Amino acid sequence: MSIPDVVRLHPTPEQYAYAFGGREPLLTVRPGNLVELTTEDCFGGLVRGVDDLPSAVCTFPFLNPVTGPIAVEGAEPGDTLAVHFVDIRPARDWAVSATFPLFGALTATHTTAMLHPALEERVWMYDVDVAAGVCRFSARRSDLTVELPLDPMHGTVGVAPAAGEVMMSITPAAHGGNMDTPEMRAGTTAYFPVNVPGAMLSIGDGHARQGEGEVCGTAVEAAMETVVVIDLVKGLAPASPRLESDTHLMTTGSARPLEDAFRMSQHDLVTWTADLFDLEALDAYQLVSQAGLAPAGNVVDTNYTMLGKLPKSLLDGRTAYDGLHDRLRGVAEEYLRSR
Amino acid sequence: MSIPDVVRLHPTPEQYAYAFGGREPLLTVRPGNLVELTTEDCFGGLVRGVDDLPSAVCTFPFLNPVTGPIAVEGAEPGDTLAVHFVDIRPARDWAVSATFPLFGALTATHTTAMLHPALEERVWMYDVDVAAGVCRFSARRSDLTVELPLDPMHGTVGVAPAAGEVMMSITPAAHGGNMDTPEMRAGTTAYFPVNVPGAMLSIGDGHARQGEGEVCGTAVEAAMETVVVIDLVKGLAPASPRLESDTHLMTTGSARPLEDAFRMSQHDLVTWTADLFDLEALDAYQLVSQAGLAPAGNVVDTNYTMLGKLPKSLLDGRTAYDGLHDRLRGVAEEYLRSR
Amino acid sequence: MSIPDVVRLHPTPEQYAYAFGGREPLLTVRPGNLVELTTEDCFGGLVRGVDDLPSAVCTFPFLNPVTGPIAVEGAEPGDTLAVHFVDIRPARDWAVSATFPLFGALTATHTTAMLHPALEERVWMYDVDVAAGVCRFSARRSDLTVELPLDPMHGTVGVAPAAGEVMMSITPAAHGGNMDTPEMRAGTTAYFPVNVPGAMLSIGDGHARQGEGEVCGTAVEAAMETVVVIDLVKGLAPASPRLESDTHLMTTGSARPLEDAFRMSQHDLVTWTADLFDLEALDAYQLVSQAGLAPAGNVVDTNYTMLGKLPKSLLDGRTAYDGLHDRLRGVAEEYLRSR
Amino acid sequence: MSIPDVVRLHPTPEQYAYAFGGREPLLTVRPGNLVELTTEDCFGGLVRGVDDLPSAVCTFPFLNPVTGPIAVEGAEPGDTLAVHFVDIRPARDWAVSATFPLFGALTATHTTAMLHPALEERVWMYDVDVAAGVCRFSARRSDLTVELPLDPMHGTVGVAPAAGEVMMSITPAAHGGNMDTPEMRAGTTAYFPVNVPGAMLSIGDGHARQGEGEVCGTAVEAAMETVVVIDLVKGLAPASPRLESDTHLMTTGSARPLEDAFRMSQHDLVTWTADLFDLEALDAYQLVSQAGLAPAGNVVDTNYTMLGKLPKSLLDGRTAYDGLHDRLRGVAEEYLRSR
């Protein structure tokens, strides 16, 4: 095994995109390429201290910048784009989180419209220590600090939507986007349906770590230095993005209400299980019901995201996408050893 | 430490209850008592083969029998009932699962009313091997079998509801009930709000194992031989049941829609975190957002159940309920050693 | 036509019920009887001025008193209880409305749990002028007054639930209960599924008028002097309560989320339409889709209520329940003439 | 009063748009202009008989064509675009409705994902008699025909979205779009928030009539000859589209879940009421709660739409937008007299 070509993508500030769809590629790669890229945090790097309120320093709709789009040669509608995360590394020794007016799971929002005034907008700065593998929470109204394990991931990964739509980068949907699941970490392969020629992959919204649900609306937001391997499976486009780690097959559903996000993710897990085990639908439904997991991704964005997870220990030698995850994992290890 | 008094409760068939509330106790215990009890499966043991369709052999509303109620001396409204699961052991070498007409997450139901005919009603029989720690799924439309780890738990645990209400045992709500979370396993302590004198605890609906969400509507349903320690905390009644394992603090929300179940569980996790860390509310909201987990319990019952989970590794010596879980864990270990 | 027997039911304060189910009848009537009854307002008459905050003067769970239950001779599970509202008349020259902490459509609630403090609890007193047919809104933070037409109705009408359940009177469900639809006015016949022998009808929660959705959580709450004719249809129990006015057939769905309440009400409207027109299901679905109405009942209670409505002008001579509404209308007119 | 300039817009087949946003104007008008335009039906006129199944004769995403965009001189982000419907007239003597696989309120869908096979796809042809003011439903599985009153309206009316988004024409949201409310009929003025220079108005999806909720997913779909007056209010952009008829002020909320659509519509009705009556927010909440209506628009599209309605009889001389509706009504009458 040899390391494939490595391509670099470091956008200038004016090159960031804020939407999926409707934009020319910043870069074109071939299936199999490794891409080293940088991403800015969801506030565009403008929130640098507790007095930098996002609503004051950021300007709608210039929120949640993404790096891309990256065109993939040969990708056609109906294909499956595989993106394996080799490395996701915080680029700074700090990260930031915040409440934002009328955004979050435990607050009135523009759609869950209420007569309450918005909750206080507040910023939290985190120390990030990559070597020690921790980030440090500091309370704002007391002296408490709590060390939390680093678990870097990308909240926003996706391709251009179907039907010529252009969607803000804060929206998760069938094209991926802002799913905000902590499972999008290094070691994971994500599979996206290709909707337009070239697929048009974009990546952003790094989190030093994130709880399930992203309850307050933001994670430990961090600029990232990220490495991915990009590959292509002809045909087989999933209904919604799928993920695969060394231990689990994962499906996603991004929709509102939350039960529909759940239904979509479990429906696709049943479909995938039926396919892998050559099972009739109700038999797969039964197996998933007893063996599956169902964690929340986000319950704050314009669509909510739920995940379905099946342990690969059940597969007994069966592999998804003809073993692509393992092959990409091998490429990643080779790259990391050689770096 | 000595083993507390052990009380036994083995209901006769006609003694099972099918509701929470409105019923005289089968047994009265003192705080600290160990109770060895038996529970029947959710079908009352009537589904014993793939041709025993639940809709034919069971009679509404005689579904989901529970063992109890157990009155606890000294329990008053506003108190907290602690139930520590010492052991949950399948009573038979088989268990059963089924689809049931118009019940489940991926089917039309009586409330998610649609014009589709009901999905097929189908029964799956599982072999249960307690010694080996596995149960075996057998597909009905192919020869596939899959061994799954045993992970015994109770789907239905709760107390009498407030306001004189009587609720079918299939409903989860603030009183507990049919929350159907796999976290209700041996080693876990559950905390319930006491609504009536004596609390009136009932337990049923054993599962040899269950996936998160209980997607098809039933788990690997099994009669159980179960041991609990029951204890009482004066005052401090939580809004909804809480759970504690050796590794996590857990909150629950049982409601519809699913986002409300999520909101309730996360709201209580913020409240609990604020209390344990002496944090102001938004600071606790921030910490939970980055450190918490959010798995589904059930997304099929008359209310859905979501969980919030916080790793106890963050607590740095802080304890919930003055260390009650650890004390009950100690009692459980002593009992198990002596058995 | 002669006026049927008139029975009177004027509960003493201690006779009011606060739940459906689990209670002996206050009165037993025969099918065809007219009943003159009185109901107290949802606050038990305790909120009599703008300083009487409901949370201070009322005691949970003694909210929303209902008059009943009334047992109906011969009513058996599976039958249909018909309740025709002959007259609903405010008993006082004032009525009252209020916001209540964590209750309403545009506020955080116990289930739509949020970190906002509760909205202000505030009381509004209305002048009621039955002769003029108006009630007068007076703003609390300005001098504005607005005259609104009287349109008296009952928010809470229902029978004992199935399965031995006892439900607080504030909950609407398949048994009726607190549906809070302005369609429950004089001239309307309501049809309920009978779940227990005697049906056990209770009525309360009079409103001098109410907007659709009952947005702030309470209507123009008024004690009432009400007259109903009670009748019985053997069999034919609907899935959820139905209503019939001189102009419309109406179905209800009471559930959460709101789309399920909508689905239930429209599903039953399709079922009813298919039955009346002898139409296949998809043909009825099509006709309802073009001819039906879908107003909200309440979007604040423990279940939400939506209505489906079909204009009777389409029926071309077809009648529901063999013309029962017209017959009860005739009885009502005879009674009103003779009074 | 004189009739303003009349402009005509009759798109060729290739000129139809299928999205809001991202497109150059077909026409530019001045505020005050009358526009006579034609629209094709939601199937692009391709479903012309019961054997023309939409999924066979239509090609995704070429569904729901809209006429436009029409740029309005001087319209700037933050302004309010007023569109008064002068006339909406079916262009043919037939119209069509259909079920479509996995689309509708009483069926599994791509998001309310279930294991049921799709309901049957079926087409209904309607006779349209403009002179008699009726359209005729014919059942497909029986000989039943039912005459329904014509009540022509447009399901899809909106402007370019904010943030550079491009949305399929089947989506309703803050920009309007496919709200599918029967209130969008001749005699109504609709007010839209302007998001981009020129506003970029598009109109399509005519319905000979539609029930509330558009339950089966389609209305009585018809090509239309429509006349609108377009006007501009500087500033005052509403959060979501508002409507005004001679009798009611109306607000809309387009979102999922349905309770959020309800909350948005009622929140804006409270805001509008507070503004018109100079009322404090809770006082307006109270008044709306007793006087408002809350019908469904659609409960089938990618977002659901609910309406809030307040009778103008309460306004006692107050007018919205400085009486603009009455002025446009006057223009419309003048035009209709002169035609």
Key descriptive features of the protein:
homotetramer; 339 residues; alpha+beta; Jelly Rolls; nine-stranded mixed sheet; six-stranded mixed sheet; 4 helices; 21 strands; 15% helix; globular
What does this molecule look like?
The structure is a homotetramer of 339-residue chains. Chain A is an alpha+beta fold and 339 residues long. Chain A has a single domain, classed as Jelly Rolls (Sandwich), CATH 2.60.120.580. Chain A has four helices and 21 strands. Chain A has helices at residues 54-57, 258-277, 281-291, 324-338; strands spanning 6-9, 19-20, 27-29, 34-39, 66-72, 80-90, 94-98, 123-129, 134-138, 145-149, 153-158, 167-168, 172-173, 176-177, 189-193, 201-207, 224-233, 242-244, 248-255, 296-298, 304-311. The first copy, chain A, has a nine-stranded mixed β-sheet. In chain A, a hairpin with a 4-residue loop joins β8 (123-129) and β9. The radius of gyration of chain A is 19 Å and the shape is globular. The mean pLDDT of chain A is 97. The A-C interface holds A 106-108, 112-117, 119, 257, 259 and C 106-108, 112-117, 119, 257, 259.
